[in-house]
Amino acid sequence: MRTITGIGVSAGRVLGPSLRMPPPVPEPAADARFGADQTVDGEKARLKDAAEDVRDDLRHRAETASGDAKAVLNATAMMATDPMLLKAAGKHINAGMTPERAVWEAGMEVAAMLQSLGGYMAERTQDVLDVRARIVAQLDGLPPPGIPGSDVPFILTAEELAPADTATLDPAKVIGLVTSGGGPQSHTAILARSLGLPAVVGAVESDSIPDGAELFIDGAAGTVVVEPGTAEREAAQKYAARVSLPPFSGKGTTSDGYAVPLLANVGSGKDARAAAVAGAEGIGLLRTEFCFLGRDSEPGVEEQVQAYGSVFEAFPGRKVVIRTLDAGADKPLPFLTDTTEPNPALGVRGYRTDRTSPGVLARQLEAIAIAAGAHEADVWVMAPMIATADEAADFAVMCTGAGLAIPGVMIEVPAAAVMAQAILSRVRFASLGTNDLTQYTMAADRQLGSLASLNDPWQPAVLRLIKNTVDGARAAEAAAGSDSVESPKNVGVCGESAADPALAVVLAGLGVNTLSMTPRALASVGAVLASVSIAEAKDLASLALAAASAAEARTAVRSRLPLLEELGL
Ligand code: PEP
Ligand code: MG
């Protein structure tokens, strides 16, 4: 028995065999030519066999998969033997290229062609790029890339997951996640919480866990036990039989009826429909860049109108906060960002891309206004990565010019939290992006597992910046006058911290007006919030603010919320 420690990012205790995510397939050399002892026909046959093997393997996996993963695996299976792909590769083989390089080039050509067609066809681009990597792996005898297939449920171990891996992660098969990299705000953490999967990130020693080893993970404590004993087995059984949470009532309040609306974070119309079913009171963050990840050209206005409209449609008469493109750093969009920047998290990201690619933001606001006009949702618009009051003012002018009445900003740069009053006197609302606010306050990359203890939204420095933002909003309201149309100044939180039920109570106690989270967290946050009065929440907030460390703040608050243990949270 061996215990590996990491950072618990999604609560739950499960037991299962480990299975490792293989490394990405390396690009075959551009000048790879087949030898004189091989023939064109022989190489084409090798390619065809590999493509058929990939197709059959994906079909087999699709048969036992569920939900989105099933659909994606089936679509990719069809693509594997697509005549257009194989014909294009065949031409390169005729010119002497190895099948590996030939299919790599052909995949690129087909992807570019699909991209140029736009709409549904453009969405298939990722499938082509995925399938070409699978064919190359098959030709070279390498393990297929992406989430591994298995007939039995398993705990996935990896260095880190990419947003694209989400599509093939089947929660019926993957019952827990362990990564050696990644912090509490990494993609793995966000994905795990949205799927409700117990997860530990930043478990540096987990790279040495062999496939098939039995693992126990505790996603609240942040521990991974290899070859667990009786105590862990019992803990997993107890967790499986825990008190189940009642579904979210559809109204976030404290025990004495103080309202803290609970909203959802989404990336598509489909997510929004699921959020409505889960009882979200509105959308607190629509990450528009998620609608266009993997695109290398700017989506047209009409395409954007459709994408945003599908979210607005799910919340008639309800608040929907849409965020303009937050491209850059870990979410590059080739048509907006320069991936060769030496320090992308501190580079041209979010609102700053308006400096380097003028016009894209204006067209996006135009599309948002058209979509808002066609639906009943109460649409609020915010810009990411705002650092100064001038930027906030310029963004507000752009919004009103586009006919969007409620402009706001993300507060995720410490400078913006410090200058909250000046910023909030120029816009109608703020939403605290605690994922970035934490990484920038602590100067700790949110993707880095090794710095995960710094990258913790419980850090009192982060909590103090949140308080400063709320105080700034109240001061801006007072300056505007309570009867002004500019009041009130809503301050929400849409970072992952809002999905931590204990921290959500602290945020409410700090005076945050709304909390936005993955729909999965609505029930647990709603239940824990309803277990305290607003006065108790304020006391817990004071306790957390006064702590000297993140660990001290967390422990002090959690010990006063007994419901957490009962619910296994
Ligand atoms: C944040 O930074 O907290 C946030 C919500 O934005 P994102 O995670 O998309 O950067
Ligand atoms: Mg952010």
UniProtKB/TrEMBL annotation:
<keyword id="KW-0460">Magnesium</keyword>
<dbReference type="GO" id="GO:0008965">
    <property type="term" value="F:phosphoenolpyruvate-protein phosphotransferase activity"/>
</dbReference>
<dbReference type="InterPro" id="IPR036618">
    <property type="entry name" value="PtsI_HPr-bd_sf"/>
</dbReference>
<keyword id="KW-0963">Cytoplasm</keyword>
<keyword id="KW-0808">Transferase</keyword>
<feature type="domain" description="PEP-utilising enzyme mobile">
    <location>
        <begin position="154"/>
        <end position="222"/>
    </location>
</feature>
<dbReference type="InterPro" id="IPR008279">
    <property type="entry name" value="PEP-util_enz_mobile_dom"/>
</dbReference>
<dbReference type="InterPro" id="IPR050499">
    <property type="entry name" value="PEP-utilizing_PTS_enzyme"/>
</dbReference>
<dbReference type="Pfam" id="PF02896">
    <property type="entry name" value="PEP-utilizers_C"/>
</dbReference>
<feature type="domain" description="Phosphotransferase system enzyme I N-terminal">
    <location>
        <begin position="5"/>
        <end position="124"/>
    </location>
</feature>
<feature type="domain" description="PEP-utilising enzyme C-terminal">
    <location>
        <begin position="253"/>
        <end position="532"/>
    </location>
</feature>
<protein>
    <recommendedName>
        <fullName>Phosphoenolpyruvate-protein phosphotransferase</fullName>
        <ecNumber>2.7.3.9</ecNumber>
    </recommendedName>
</protein>
<dbReference type="InterPro" id="IPR008731">
    <property type="entry name" value="PTS_EIN"/>
</dbReference>
<keyword id="KW-0762">Sugar transport</keyword>
<dbReference type="InterPro" id="IPR006318">
    <property type="entry name" value="PTS_EI-like"/>
</dbReference>
<keyword id="KW-0813">Transport</keyword>
<dbReference type="InterPro" id="IPR015813">
    <property type="entry name" value="Pyrv/PenolPyrv_kinase-like_dom"/>
</dbReference>
<keyword id="KW-0598">Phosphotransferase system</keyword>
<keyword id="KW-0479">Metal-binding</keyword>
<dbReference type="InterPro" id="IPR036637">
    <property type="entry name" value="Phosphohistidine_dom_sf"/>
</dbReference>
<keyword id="KW-0418">Kinase</keyword>
<comment type="similarity">
    <text>Belongs to the PEP-utilizing enzyme family.</text>
</comment>
<dbReference type="Pfam" id="PF00391">
    <property type="entry name" value="PEP-utilizers"/>
</dbReference>
<dbReference type="InterPro" id="IPR000121">
    <property type="entry name" value="PEP_util_C"/>
</dbReference>
<dbReference type="InterPro" id="IPR024692">
    <property type="entry name" value="PTS_EI"/>
</dbReference>
<dbReference type="InterPro" id="IPR040442">
    <property type="entry name" value="Pyrv_kinase-like_dom_sf"/>
</dbReference>
<feature type="region of interest" description="Disordered">
    <location>
        <begin position="15"/>
        <end position="45"/>
    </location>
</feature>
<comment type="function">
    <text>General (non sugar-specific) component of the phosphoenolpyruvate-dependent sugar phosphotransferase system (sugar PTS). This major carbohydrate active-transport system catalyzes the phosphorylation of incoming sugar substrates concomitantly with their translocation across the cell membrane. Enzyme I transfers the phosphoryl group from phosphoenolpyruvate (PEP) to the phosphoryl carrier protein (HPr).</text>
</comment>
<dbReference type="Pfam" id="PF05524">
    <property type="entry name" value="PEP-utilisers_N"/>
</dbReference>
